[in-house]
Write a structure and sequence with these properties.
The complex is a heterotrimer of chains A (294), B (372) and C (343). With 294 residues, chain A is mainly alpha-helical. Helix content of chain A is 75%, strand content 4%. Chain A has one domain. Chain A is built from 13 helices and 4 strands. In chain A, strand 2 and strand 3 form a beta hairpin. Chain B has 372 residues and is α/β, with parallel strands linked by helices. Chain B has 2 domains: 215 residues, 3-Layer(aba) Sandwich (Rossmann fold); 128 residues, Rossmann fold. Chain C is an all-alpha fold. Chain C is 71% helix and 1% strand. Chain C has a two-stranded antiparallel ribbon. In chain C, helix 2 packs across helix 14. Chains A and B meet through helix 1, strand 1 and helix 11 of A and strand 7, helix 7, helix 8 and helix 9 of B. Chain C: It is found in: Cell membrane.
Chain lengths: 294, 372, 343
């Protein structure tokens, strides 16, 4: 039973982690909480659904469609809605982000209807593996493995490539990066693209594990992912993953071992958030942006 | 000259009195917002019934005034007030959920305007109110139907109930089932609480498996039930599963896939076995217009809400007399509706049959009728 | 001389509103009165929301949470014990819940008070740290309040909500409290606290350097917001006569956000103008949800299109007309001509 729940926890935690990485990267370079990020995850799920159910593409092609589509959407939202506000007061940017989030949710609601649609999961992923008394669906096992691989790739990009260095430099100071001859706007767009692609992968995992898509599915997941990013340390990719895992595990453990508290499981992400802000505001693995500015 | 003007005046008077009037009937429904799909389906029934029967016995035309509540309570209140004070409606059909309908009734009752709710099943809706009516059955009836069917027909003795804390429908139906099942000699071995919006029920199904009941009762809506069914199948939990009308739609079967084969649920009627003549005609006309053979229960109930309103108006000498209309609604007995035979009582509740369906080969198949 | 003129303008406006309420109650039909009540309540919410968002520049998403608290406190205090006994259908209520009873004024004050207490509790972790966490924390807070309301049926009757709340709210109450709220907020904005808040908005670093206690300024704004939002929630409960957890969702906050952005972040008059426009405009925009005719081509009904348009309007304003209608100006500034710039 315990091992079973551990695997469930890993699975759920990894999905939160994938989305949290996108939040943390965008916040790192722009100090923007991109409220629309959770909805990008929803778009990824819908594009996957569209690819498999409507266009009848093979599964991997649909996944590719979802990733590319979401990345483009993320980059477009930066270009259209956020870039013009680079020098505006922060609050304008946040309000616009909420506007984009609301727009995505309602646009999909109008065009696809609010009724959840069934997602045809490829049968290989629906297989159940059984060993040692554990029943594990393949879909639940794949998530942590792929997440670890993606995390490795992201970390490699951030620390071993020139683009990655530019991104880390941006997190320090946007103006200096421009002075150094790097086009900060282009790097920011790439960050949006990467973050959105990861959110799309999270979205696909989500619909594979819980085979239905509806326009509001990204809302709560997105919020928890942001809470995870803060808990783990905002601005730190490793922190985002850590935060995601912590929140995922807590949710699973709460329902498994304290079923009476089941209704409150969504509250835990925010309780952790408040606790971290009280005791260690920079998060578990976080760096203090304010201090590092001077 | 005088004679001519008198003749002209009286001609005009005659003409205007034989000029059929337009009488307004209000419709408050969630046409947008989270429950849009259900609201639109229900409204489809209301409008279609209206197209089949737009006039009253005395030649007056019924005009439907539809206001979208967006599924929101404040809007429901505004809509109801507007219909009563601006549009001067004789009666109101709506809303969708029991919570919003309660809001509509709270306002309409004070103004003595009869309300007919098509699908709001919560027991308490009509209590203490004089102008509240409904054409669907109540949660206590539905709970008893399932409980008795399980205990007596299927001889199942123990059950686990999963309740959705966030939905009034679920709370009401679960309570009714528990009371009826215990009364029928059954035992509820466990009650598990969830919240709508959840997708991950692995812990829930593990607990059910550990409790090992004879069957599971899931009085919730299809998004959650379909996920539970799937995840139950994943861990090899293969017990009979039952739900109320919250899953009585094709989306449930689509979402559940293989996992809901053999799933049983209660519904208001079965379009494959039309219970009345009117039902047969409605289904035929509906298929002719929309090309869809299947008539969803919400469509049928919406139609019946309209038909009952018109029927009551026809029985009144003055169809604009809202008090009379309300009394006639409550006096209705043996009304042949699209969804079945409906009899109303003093409290505004309806006595009608329920059907039990089972999912076979990805289709909902009729299994049994339970009469009150 | 100009100070007196400002006072005259404001005073005449207040008297105008009071006179209007008196006439409205006698002459307008029920529906219009209901809409006016809604406008009054949302005015209270908007001007107080503007205090933290617009005047202090701290992006917060708190209204649905505090309004929920206010609504529930008032409802619990106003519903009679018999009505409670009969309504609580999920589990039996706690005995203290049954004994809760107070008159309308006390209920409203307590609603505001509880909301303020919770705001204080939230202020400590959030405002100590400079950063943008207020938005996410308040958003989460709203969620948690809703979760508590659903999962604590012994107190709140769960998702069934509370019904049979006596209908105390009429134009005198809502309009009167709206006037009080507006006057209070304007007085705060024009006082030294208000200047501190604006300093925090314009340049927090400079404010700290000048010796402004930014934590106090932010907390004061937040708590005042919370107080009036609690009172507004209580008025809403007494207007609707029944409340349930699903009323207080994110869209509630989003509506207020559009209102203050449209009116002009930082302007109390703007908040009032925004409320009238949005509340009136939503009714007008219903046509978007129905089939529309464009040059002979009829589009099918697209319910929900209204929401899409709302969000696009918000983005549009942020991109092209960030100041909203009033910018940072108040009513008195409209009469001033271009000599003085409003700050």
């Amino acid at each position: 039973m315990f091992m079973q729940q551990m695997i469930n926890g890993f699975s759920l935690g990894s999905m939160y982690a994938l989305i949290a990485i996108g939040y943390t990267m965008v916040y790192g370079v722009l100090r923007l909480i991109n409220f629309a990020h959770g909805d990008i995850m929803m778009v990824g799920g819908f594009l996957g659904f569209f690819g498999v159910a409507v266009l009848e593409l093979p599964f991997l092609a649909a996944v590719l469609l979802a990733i590319v589509g979401s990345a483009l959407l993320g980059m477009a939202s930066d270009r259209i809605a956020y870039r013009p506000l680079r020098s505006a007061p922060k609050i304008s940017l946040l309000i616009t982000a909420i506007g984009v989030s609301f727009f995505l949710e309602n646009a999909f609601n109008v065009f696809f209807g609010g009724v959840p649609r069934a997602f045809p999961v490829p049968s290989v992923l629906e297989d159940i593996l059984e060993f040692g008394g554990l029943t594990i669906p393949v879909s639940a096992l794949i998530v942590p493995i792929l997440t670890a691989m993606l995390l490795a790739i992201i970390l490699w990009v951030l620390f071993k490539t020139k683009y990655g260095m530019a991104i880390r430099a941006l997190a320090f100071d946007v103006d200096t990066v421009n002075l150094m001859g790097i086009d900060a706007n282009r790097i920011i767009t790439i960050v949006f693209g990467m973050g959105s692609a990861l959110a799309a992968v999270g979205g696909i995992f989500w619909v594979v594990n819980y085979p239905s898509v509806d326009p509001m599915m990204g809302v709560l997941v997105g919020l928890k992912a942001f809470a995870a990013a803060v808990v783990g340390g905002i601005g730190s990719v490793g922190g985002a993953v850590l935060g995601g895992l912590i929140i995922g595990f807590t949710e699973v453990v709460v329902i498994a071992f304290f079923p009476e508290l089941g209704g409150y499981k969504d509250a835990f992400a925010f309780i952790f958030l408040i606790l971290i802000l009280l005791f260690k505001p920079t998060g578990i693995l976080g760096i203090d942006f304010e201090k590092s500015r001077f | 000259m005088r004679k001519l003007s008198v003749l002209a005046a009286s001609a005009l008077l005659l003409a205007s009195s034989s000029f059929a009037k337009e009488i307004n009937v209000g419709v408050v429904m969630s046409m947008s917002g989270p429950l849009a799909a259900y609201g639109q389906t229900c409204n489809e029934g209301i409008e279609f019934a209206h197209s089949l029967q737009p006039k009253l016995k005395n030649g007056d035309t019924v005009k439907l005034v539809l206001i979208d509540t967006k599924g929101d309570k404040v809007e429901s209140a505004n809509a109801t007030t507007r219909l009563i004070s601006s549009d001067k409606v004789v009666g109101i059909i709506g809303e969708l959920t029991s919570t919003n309908t309660a809001q509509v009734i709270a306002i309409a009752d004070k103004k003595e305007i009869p309300v007919i709710a098509p699908v709001a099943t919560n027991d308490k809706l009509t209590e203490g109110k004089k102008f509240a009516n409904r054409v669907c059955f109540t949660d206590s009836f539905q709970g008893a139907v399932v409980a008795n069917y399980a205990a007596k027909d299927l001889k199942l003795k123990t059950a686990v109930v999963v309740v959705d804390q966030a939905q009034v429908y679920s709370l009401g139906l679960a309570k009714a089932f528990k009371d009826a099942f215990s009364a029928a000699g059954g035992k509820i071995v466990k009650e598990i609480k969830v919240s709508s919006g959840d997708k991950d029920f692995k812990a829930v199904v593990s607990q059910i498996k550990a409790a090992n009941p004879d069957f599971m009762f899931l009085p919730m809506y299809h998004p959650e039930v379909s996920m539970i069914a799937r995840q139950a199948k994943q861990i090899g939990l293969n017990k009979p599963m039952f739900s109320g009308d919250g899953v009585a739609n094709q989306t449930f079967i689509d979402l559940g896939g293989d996992a809901v084969e053999g799933y049983m649920f209660t519904d208001f009627f079965d379009y494959g076995a039309p219970p009345t003549e009117r039902s047969k005609e409605f289904i035929k006309a509906y298929a002719a217009k929309t090309g869809k053979q299947e008539v969803n229960s919400f469509v049928a109930l919406g139609a019946d809400a309209y038909n009952l309103m018109v029927d009551a108006m026809n029985r009144c000498a003055n169809p604009e007399d809202n008090i009379c209309v309300n009394n006639e609604i409550k006096k209705t007995k043996g009304f042949e509706g699209v969804s079945g035979v409906i009899s109303m009582d003093e409290l505004g509740n309806s006595t009608r049959s329920a059907v039990i369906k089972v999912v076979q080969n990805a289709k909902a198949v009729y299994k049994a009728t339970v009469n009150p | 001389m100009t100070v007196k003129k400002d006072q005259w303008i404001n005073l005449s406006f207040v008297f105008g509103v009071i006179g209007f309420i008196g006439i409205a109650n006698s002459f307008f039909d029920e529906y219009t009165i209901r809409i006016l009540n809604n406008i009054a309540i949302f005015t209270i919410l908007a001007v107080s929301y503007n205090l933290i968002n617009g005047v202090t520049g701290q992006f917060s998403l708190e209204p649905n949470g505090f309004v929920a608290i206010g609504a529930y406190v008032t409802a619990l205090l106003l519903v009679s014990p018999e009505a409670k006994q009969y309504q609580y259908a999920i589990v039996d209520p706690y005995p203290f819940v049954l004994s809760l009873h107070a008159n309308f004024v006390v209920a409203l004050v307590l609603s505001g008070f509880f909301a303020t207490c919770l705001a204080l509790v939230l202020s400590f972790p959030v405002f100590r740290v400079r950063g943008d966490y207020l938005a996410i924390v308040t958003l989460g807070f709203g969620f948690i309040i809703k979760i508590f309301a659903i999962n604590y049926p012994e107190v709140t009757n769960g998702s069934l909500g509370l019904n049979d709340i006596p209908e105390f709210s009429n134009l005198y109450w809502t309009g009167g409290i709206a006037i009080i709220a507006v006057i209070t907020v304007l007085n705060i904005v024009n006082s030294k606290f208000g200047r501190a808040m604006k300093a925090v908005r314009d340049d927090e670093d400079a404010a700290i350097a000048m010796g402004v206690n930014t934590f106090k300024a932010k907390t004061f704004a937040f708590c005042t917001s919370a107080f009036f939002e609690g009172v507004g929630g209580g008025l809403l409960a007494a207007l609707l006569t029944s409340i349930s957890p699903d009323l207080f969702d994110f869209f509630f906050t989003f509506q207020l956000l559009i209102i203050i952005v449209l009116g002009g972040l930082g302007s109390t008059t703007g908040a009032i103008v925004g409320t009238i426009l949005v509340m009136g405009g939503s009714e007008w925009m219903r046509f978007l949800d129905e089939p529309m005719k464009f040059f002979g081509y009829t589009t099918p009904a697209m319910p929900g299109l209204r929401m899409v348009v709302f969000s696009l309007i918000l983005i549009f304003i942020m991109l092209f007309a960030r100041e909203g209608i009033m910018g940072k100006k108040e009513l008195k500034d409209l009469f001033k001509g271009r000599k003085r710039s409003a700050k």
